[in-house]
């Protein structure tokens, strides 16, 4: 082998090593913290048995983490001076739940493998394990994310989708995170589970516009039902995202609700206001729906947004503060 060739081979090896380092892998902790995934799963199962509503909450926490600075656990950080972290952003304040679950898992994992497992990976695993325990859905979680050191309310207000956004605004936000319109339609199907505060419905029900105090795109019977559940000025009552079933379950009802104008948010209704997106909605809403499989793929993709790997970021010791 000539020296040029050796240099080339060595360079390729270095490149391969760097690339391998920068990629997430389901076996990332196998040598670093052997029993990690079993342990997280066990803790989360116990948690969800105690309170099922924490599963949708953890799913949303992971989504809101990934959309702001990537999946780097920035959503978990308390802002040092108070009042300006992601927790204080409009879409998060008085709304995100499940922080104590992550702290609990982190404490137990630190006791087992100190300084090894990132808060971002713990959040990604907890979201998946909780929804698996909730029932009917799971996805693959490649690991190796590292934790960020910055949290910003301003960035969260810029990057998190608001419930009154139209299709184009939502599309721009999702595309900006490397997700397609299809990913967006599929991921929005998460609104088949979980709760919303009446605060999130006030404008749509009571002060939509001067001409129409109630959003005219809502089915009138459904609007009347929502108004009974969420009286004007009620910011605190929690109501089910999917109003068509007595208990919260994983299914493709979301798409049926969108088509019948019986979803909670303008952003849900928007999913049928674009021809290509509407086709995807129709495809999900059939017997033998591909929804769960497509949701699993989209979640894995979402979990890769802007991840810190290799030597970037840090492994936080405590999820609410940088080291
Ligand atoms: C398309 C843009 C989206 C908008 C505008 C949006 C907006 C909202 C709003 C306003 C709530 C109620 C929050 C409250 O009132 O406290 C909510 C709840 C929820 N969202 Fe979304 N969301 C979107 C996409 C997603 C995605 C992509 C996921 C996950 C993959 C998701 C998962 C959830 C879950 C699980 C809940 C219930 C949380 C709980 O029970 O604590 N959402 N969303
Ligand atoms: C791994 O964790 C699970 C769940 O906590 C536990 O049942 C199992 O005994 C552990 N295995 C080892 C080898 O520590
Ligand atoms: C509900 O929230 C809105 C918007 O923040 C506020 O203007 C209103 O006073 C609140 N209502 C009550 C009863 O707290």
Automatic annotation (TrEMBL):
Pfam families per the UniProt record, alphabetical: peroxidase (PF00141)
Site (Transition state stabilizer): 60
Swiss-Prot/TrEMBL keywords: Calcium, Disulfide bond, Heme, Hydrogen peroxide, Iron, Metal-binding, Oxidoreductase, Peroxidase, Secreted, Signal
The UniProt record lists the keyword Metal-binding: yes
Cofactor section: heme b; Ca(2+)
GO cellular component: extracellular region; plant-type cell wall
Catalyzed reaction equations: 2 a phenolic donor + H2O2 = 2 a phenolic radical donor + 2 H2O
Location of this chain's protein in the cell: Secreted
Name used for this protein in its record: Peroxidase
